[in-house]
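Researcher: Please translate sequence to C-alpha cells.
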Amino acid sequence: MSTVFWGTVSILGSLVSGTGKLQHYCMRRWSKDNLWLSRARVEIEGIENIDRTRPQILVANHSGLHDILSLAAFLPIQFRWIAKKSLFRIPFMGWHMRRSGYIPIDRENPREAAKTIIQAAEEIRGGVSAIAFPEGTRSRTGELGEFRSGAFALALRTGVPLVPITLDGSSRVIVPGTLQVTPGVTIRIRIGAPIDLSGYARGEKHRLMEDVFQIMSDSLAELRSRRRPAEEAHDPVFCWITAAGGRAGPDRY
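Model: Translation complete:
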C-alpha cells in the first residue's frame, strides 16, 4: 500500500513539478515505511558533515536496496541521484527520473560522458547536492567493489566538497536470490568528513578515486568490527555464499 500511495503521489506531482522536491519527499516517506516494515534498524554517525547551506557531492558504497532506503530516509537534505544514462531511456521510468531531477551520466560513450558531466556540473554549481554509487552496481557480498570515475570527474569539475558515505548491513536485509527479509538487521552508516578538492588538479580523478576508496574501505572495516556476535551468526549473505561454494558475483541492474 505504501508503494502504491507514495508512487502515485510522486507520479502525479511529476506532472506539475520538475523541481524534484515533492518526489524527494515521497521517496523519503516511502523509504521510512519500508525500513519499518523490514524492521531494519539504522545507526548513523557524522550527520554534521552534511552541509545544508551549500551543494555537495556524496558518494556511497552499494550492496542492496536498503542502501537507497536508508540514505533517502535519513540524509537531512534534498539531493538528486546520479544514475547511468541508459536508465533514462526506459519508457515512463526515464520521464519520472528526469522530472524528479535525477542526473544522468553516460558510461558508454566517452565523448557523451564528458558532455553529461559538464551538464551535471552546471546543475550542482547551481545549488543542487547529488549522490552517486561509484561502484556502479550492487555487491552481493557487501565487499567494496571497483569504482568508476564519473562521480569523481564530476566533483573535480564542480569544485564542491566530496563527502564519502560508508554503509554496512544493507546486503543482509534481503537473503540473496530470494524475497525473504531478515528482520532486525542493523544498517550502520558513517558520513565522512568532506574532502577539500583544492589539492587535486582537474585531471586527477583517478587519484581522488583511489583516496576515497581507501577512506571507505577503512570505514567499512571499522563498521563491520562493531557487529555483534548474533549478527554474524545469522548473516544470510554468509550463509548464501557458503551454500554456493564460496562463489558470489555482482548483481548488475
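Researcher: Any highlights?
Model: The domain at 2-243 is CATH 3.40.1130 (Glycerol-3-phosphate (1)-acyltransferase).
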